[in-house]
Amino acid sequence: MGSASYGQSYAVLADGSAVSIKGGVTKNISFSNSTALNDAIAITNGSYSNNFCVARANGAMHCGTGESLNPTASYTPAGSAKAIISLSTKNIGGGVCALLADKTVACGDSSGLSAQNTGTSQPIIQMSCFRDDGCCGVTDNGAIQCWGENITPTQGPSAKALLVTGADLNQCAVYDNGKAYCWGAAWEGQTGGSPEQSNPITPVPLTDAVTGAAGGQFHNCWVHTNGSVSCSGNGGGTSNGAGGGSSTPTKIRDSAGTQLSNIIAVNGGRGAACGVAKTGELYCWGDAGGQAEKAVKINLGGKTVRMPQDCK
Predict the structure, then answer these.
(1) Tell me, which fold does domain 2-311 have in CATH?
(2) pLDDT tens per residue, range 185-195
(3) What is the 3-state secondary structure (H, E, C) of the chain?
(4) Where are the domains of the chain?
C-alpha cells in the first residue's frame, strides 16, 4: 500500500505509479529526469523527513526526496532471489531495510543495501522498522524476531504472529488469535491503554478482532475483521488527529460521522494515516487527510491503490 511520515502519506497505485498525499491532495512521484514511474511495488519514507525509497518490479530500489526520485538505483538485485518485495525505513528516514524474495533482510540507506543479521536462521516473511536503528520481523513459524536497537518480546501469547509494525518508540504485532499486542513507549496512549512494557506483553484493549495494524509517531491504528479501523494516541499534539483524537482506541469516521468499513490495510507516520478499502479506494486522516481525525476519501483520478500482497 505505502507508508506515511512527516504529515503526509505515500501510496503505490495499481498501475505501478505512486503518489504523496497531504491535506487530501495527491502529487505524482516521478524520476528527477522527468521519466514516469510505472512499475512501483512498494514505497517507504521516514517519520521526520520527506526522504523516501521505492521498490520496483525488477527488484531494485530507488530513493528520493519529496516527489522526486533518483533515476540511478540504490540497489540492484543479484538475481531474482535477492529482489526486494517490501521496504521499511528506520533512523528517522536516514536508513532503510528491505525484505528480499529469499526471505532474508538487507539494510542500508540511499547509497546501497547489504545483508542484515536478524539474529535468527528462520526465514523472515514480514518486517517493520521504527524510529531508531531497530526492526522486528515475523518468521515463517509465527515468531517475532527483533534486531538492532530493539528488544524481542519473550513473554507473549502462544498464538502465531501474522505481522509486526513499528512506530516511533513502540511496536505492535497482530496474532492469529485476532488480538494485537504492543510493547515499548505508551505515554501518549499509542498502545491503546496498554501499559508501557516489553515483557510480558499484554493485548491492546480492542472490542473487535484485529487483522492489520500500522504505527505512527505517537499513535497506532488497527484494522478489524469487520473492516473498521481503531486508532489511539496523542489526541491532539503532533498526531493531529491521526490517532483518532483520543488516547484510547477510537473508531475512525468520515466527516459525515460514518464509520469506516471495508478497510483491509492501514499505514501510519508522523501525524498522518491512511486506509485502503477492498475496492482500492484510499481514505486518509490526520495531516494526510487534512480534517484531523475525520477520514477523507482521496481523489486518485480514477485509479486504485495497489493491493498489499497479503490482502489479495
Answers:
(1) Methylamine Dehydrogenase; Chain H (2.130.10)
(2) 777 777 766 66
(3) CEEEECCEEEEEECCCCEEEEECCEEEECEECCCCECCCEEEEEECCCCCEEEEEECCCCEEEEECCEECCCCCECCCCHHHCEEEEEEEHHHCEEEEEECCCCEEEEECCEEEECCCCCCCCEEEEEECCCCEEEEEECCCCEEEEECCCCCCCCCCCCEEEEEECCCEEEEEECCCCEEEEECCCCCCCCCCCCECCCCCECCCCCCEEEEEECCCCEEEEECCCCEEEECCCCHHHCCCCCCCCCCEECEECCCCECCCEEEEEEECCEEEEEECCCCEEEEECCCCCCCEEEECCCCCCCECCCHHHC
(4) 2-311
